[in-house]
Amino acid sequence: MKHYWNVYKKFVSTSVSVETSFRTSFILLVLMDIFFFASTVGSVSFIYDHVATIGPWGKNQLLFFITFMLMIDNLHMMIFSQSFWEFSFSIRTGQLDYTLLKPLHTIFSVFFRHFRASSVVNTPLFLGSLIYNGMKINLSFLDWCLMPVFLILGLVLLVIIEFILSTSMFWMTDGTGINFLRMQMQQLARWPEFVYRGVIRKVLMTVLPVLLIGSGPVHFLLGGKWNNLALMGGMIVVLGFVLSFVWGVGLRRYDSASS
Amino acid sequence: MTNISKWWITIKISWVKHTAYRLNFFLQIIGPSLVFFFVKYNLWSSIYAGEEDLIIKGFDFQAMIQYHLWAFVVSLVAQGHGSWNLAEDIRLGRISSYLIYPFNFWEFHTASWLSFQVIQMGIAGLTLCILGFFGLVTLPSTHLFLFGIGYTLFISLFWFTMQYLTGVLAFWLEETWILRVMLSIVSYFLSGAIIPLDLYPKWMVTFLNYTPFPYLTYYPVKLFLGEAIDLTQGVSIILFWTLFFALINHLVWKRGIKLYTAAGM
Questions:
Q1: Within chain B, which residues score under 70 in pLDDT?
Q2: What integer pLDDT is reported at residue A14 of this predicted model?
Q3: What pLDDT, on a 0 to 100 scale, did the predictor assign at position B1?
Q4: 20 to 30 A from B142, CA-CA: which of A113, B80, B125, B170?
Q5: Would A259 be classed as within a structural domain?
Q6: What is the DSSP-derived secondary structure letter of residue B191?
Q7: DSSP 8-state class, residue A54
Q8: If you count residue pairs, one on A and one on B, with CB atoms under 8 Å apart, how many are there?
Q9: Partners of residue B172 in chain A, C-beta under 8 Å
Q10: What pTM, to 2 d.p., does this model score?
Q11: Nearest Cβ partner of A47 from B23, B199, B201?
């Protein structure tokens, strides 16, 4: 573990050096996240100017859910986002060879390589908003203690699903489209599960369990419902095994574009 | 070779390029609009299911879904294009070829955009046929429909000039995708693509009417819905902004080409 931690610190420091050397891009990335935050929260607020509830939730509950998901987005952007785009590029160009040669677990060296420092600048905004909305719904002391654990669990489930999806890039000439699919999946997850109905909801809760990322923890925090949270825990374990299997198959399929 | 044949050949080559990776094209261009509509459909279904006979600013459930279906069609035609290749051409030094070819850089990319528009028109047409067949959208009168198509194509030209600007900024910026994403976020939010502008605060709509954003989605959708809108104002404002961005693009190109170092040469 110590070895991995030392390597990760190097990954972070080189990423920060690279990103801060392009200052305009760095500032634009910060602004992009702020625009995204404002448009998401603004849209929900405007809807609630005209309706009292969406499903069983009022404005405060839904805004808490939205800011919970935005906080996961912020962590995702910071730690993983860029690596997915680099992954499709490195498969296409054969640069993945050099990543695979490193004496590290391949999932670690592929998906933890790029850290986005600009997202750290926005973390106070996302975290502050989550805390503000959490206070409005009167979370208990225990809920506040559990919140970081739930954020990490949500992030873990999201990235495991995305890792599995990204494995399909081994079978494609250009995996860019998969990254767009991944982003659409995130868009689906940004709304609570009761927004969707019937078969679609069942599929998005089990086969492709993106709705559990937010709905599992937030339903527990709002009303003590633990069934979705338990399902989320189970899914993380099951999908973890699926990932380790499909990743191995994908690696065997990889034939290196540069060789 | 005449200039027209150069345009025609470029359009054909771009067509082949766009359709070479069909899954990518679907996931990159059509998928986002489709998922965006799917989320909105579910969200509004959930809102309207909460209260019987709910009407929000004149929209009942059917009217709201019609609005978003037309917004989906408009986004396919008007806002599908992205200047991905343009920025890459500059950053990787590929524009060196254009500097010696007897076909300008802007001509090449405009021809490429035209071929993209033909594909998008086909997809939008097919979508409309399917929606119309199942009775999900009501088509307006023929002349309004034709006005709507013409207006939407005009918006797509404006969208192209904005995208072109984000692309040519690659002379200065390492990453231009950030600008494209910012443009998408802002225009989705301010154009009425997420929720109709009728639901926005009045002061905000008054301000937005002086910007090009409402004319990207809200007004064309209203036109397709057969509602009375001031088309002259919409066309004038979009025309002004299109010419403005075309001029800026020209100036940016002139300044940028002086900085160009032909990476990799």
A1: 1, 84, 263-265
A2: 93
A3: 63
A4: B80
A5: no
A6: T
A7: B
A8: 104
A9: 24
A10: 0.90
A11: B199
